[in-house]
Amino acid sequence: MGEDQSVRRDEKGALAERVTQLKRERGAVVLAHYYVPAETQRMADYVGDSFYLACLAKTLDAPTVVLCGVSFMAESVKLLSPARHVLMPEPAADCPMAHMVRREDVDRVRAEVPDLAVVAYVNTTAEVKRWADVCVTSSNAIKVVRKLPQENVLFIPDMNLGRYVAEQVPEKHVILNRGYCPTHNRIGLGEVEALEVAHPDALVLAHPECTREVLDEADFIGSTKQIIERIAAGEEREFIVLTVVGVAAEITRRTEGQDKRIFFPEPAPICPNMDMVTPEKLVACLENMSGEVALPEDPRRAVGPLERMLELAGR
């Protein structure tokens, strides 16, 4: 091991020790999404996807929750646990898709379409959640939409996930909005085909935020958690993974000791906002108790769709 690598390893160890100390002193629990850097994930008490973190938020006893992720996730934690201090190590970490829907479009569809439910992907701002009847995540969207009593569904904001849900629940009439995740939407068919040529025996797993042409190439479509579980449980040895590369940390942890290889498209799909949530920023957040998330305006109207999601999804 080179000197630079040894120094870097010592720095990582010192940061991890500092986080452990600060969590104890501050009475804090750290939650991290699968897409933040691997070093940040290793410092968290819990790592998961947005559905898991949304459920977990209601069960924690800690007075302070630090959310290593993007702003809509921290807002959801605050909505479900308003009495707690909710902190973000990087308050500027946002999700572009969370803003890709207009109130006037939602109002217009409500006025024009009878027997309608507005379904908001949890990847939205608290303001957008106020416009919805229920929230969903990529892991429970099909289940929740299928359970809705309404025949018509306006799915906001992600058109790729909405289209996938519509194909799985053909008994519903699903109206799409033109939003998308820039990172998943950027994964191209050519990149996938190149991986398939290079690794012909690999199973192709894709997140439903990918485009239709990419999903058509997939052997398995699922949420981040579902992709991880499929790889961990699968007998296959090679996997092409079409989602944010940050998930590699959890896949590696879950498959330790197994002879499995994972491949991502090139260039690697990186969420620039999640990538901002570094260990150094986590330490600074705990030291200064900074990045506090305020309770959004009219919280009951925003939290209602989240609670309905937990009710219909069976937690």
Characteristics of this structure?
12 strands; globular; single chain; Rossmann fold; 4-stranded parallel β-sheet; 3 domains; 15 helices; 315 residues
Overview of the structural elements:
The protein is an alpha/beta fold and 315 residues long. The chain has three domains: 3-94 and 275-288, Rossmann fold (3-Layer(aba) Sandwich); 97-180 and 300-313, NadA-like (Rossmann fold), CATH 3.40.50; 187-268, NadA-like (Rossmann fold). Helix content is 44%, strand content 16%. The strands form three sheets. Strands 2-1-3-4 form a four-stranded parallel β-sheet, with helices on both faces. It has a four-stranded parallel β-sheet with strand order 6-5-7-8, with helices on both faces. Strands 10-9-11-12 form a four-stranded parallel β-sheet, with helices on both faces. Strand 1, helix 2 and strand 2 (46-48) form a beta-alpha-beta unit. Helix 1 (3-26) runs parallel beside helix 14 (279-288) and helix 3 packs parallel to helix 4 (71-80). The longest helix has 24 residues, at 3-26. The protein is globular.
Question: What is the count of helical runs?
Answer: 15
Q: What is the CATH H-level superfamily of the largest domain? A: NadA-like
CATH architecture of the largest domain: 3-Layer(aba) Sandwich
As for the CATH topology of the largest domain, it is Rossmann fold
- Count of extended strands: 12
Based on secondary structure, the structural category is alpha/beta
- What gross morphology would you assign? globular
| Average pLDDT over all residues | 94
Number of domains: 3
CATH class division of the largest domain: Alpha Beta
Strand fraction? 15-25%
The helix-strand sequence is: HEHEHEHEHEHEHEHEHHEHEHEHEHH
